[in-house]
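haha ok so turns out i had the wrong file open the whole time. this is the CORRECT one, sorry everyone. sequence first:
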Amino acid sequence: MAVTDRKARRAERRRRGRRLWRDLPWIAGGVGALAARNALGQDSSVDTRVLFYQESGGRTQVLDPMVFFKRDLGEKWGQLGLVVGYDAISGASPTGGYPTSDVTTSASGRLVSANTFPQADYRDTRFSAALSYGRKFGAHLPTVDVSYAKENDYTARSLGISDEWTVAHGLGTIHLGASFARDIVSPVTNHLHLPKTQNGFSLGYTWVLGERDLVDVSGSWMQLSGYLDDPYKVVPIGDPGTDTLPDHRPDSRSRRAIVIKYGHHYVGDRALKVTYRYYNDDWSIQAHTLEVVYDQRLFTNWLVTPQIRLYTQTGASFYGSRFSSPRTFLSSDYRLSPLDSALGGLTVTRKLTDTLSANLGGTYQYQRGRDRIIPIPRSGRVNDDEAPRASSASAADMTVFTITAGLTMRF
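then structure:
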């Protein structure tokens, strides 16, 4: 198993679950129904989705069915939301070890080709559930949500509190929130139960600029503490990197982000949504994300949505593909390395009846690490006359393919 490999997906699933119904006004604004943004919710729905995720090179593969249930109980009783998911995860994950130019054999007996980073095979399952309740009080829409997730070596529990406050005669909304997570990491290698704490806060403002335009600016801060290492990663030490030490990171992390969103609805049922996100933390990682999504309605019942996302990040101060000697903090996890990625995708939605719609989408992501290294033979260092012919590599190099299919029923 690889705890770090799944952190991003866990965080994304929690955000999708807790924010699904509260994101609907922004989505509605993107297609022109700006007046709907102040409503608590005009209907109830059941949304079923299946996600297939696959990394290249025999790495992680995920099958993730989810059910989103939203029940509008009326103005007096508010709105209830429930998200349930189940992940089947398998494949292999880079261990952090240094690659060689020789063909090797993994612990499971699988042949590992030359110039390939050492990988560990794993298999796991994960169950997750999130419950949300919100009720409008005057200009305020306070919401409380709780979530729980369990896998073989990780237990996640969180509580979230948020409010959306309509101001400026309905032309602006202040949104703020706080989240608190108390997770337990239980590595299968040592059977310990190690605590990890996350406390997060966010604040933002949404403007209705006109009949066809929305802008949202928000900021967030999250403080992590406790066990932040990856118990399954190793770090190459010495030359040629055949000795290793366990991955070890600081026991605290402060994460900050600023997000700017802009949505414009064009005549003819077309909409453009642009999002920019800047991120940094006290591990010296800085990241920029730019995403552009375009909605085009065709033939009344069809909605075609292409998207492009560009991402770049710097490496953590204690990251390295190999270290000459031990240090206090050190990691070779490629997710902490400097890398760039580009994603393209397309989703098609078909309205089947007045209450039922179906969607099918796919994305393709190309990722390349900037920490290029030259694999070495088991016998030792690459000779100077061989170096020009040797190809460089990075553990961050990969492509990712996803397919998502779903049905939405409103009632």
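The chain has a mean pLDDT of 86.
again sry for the mixup
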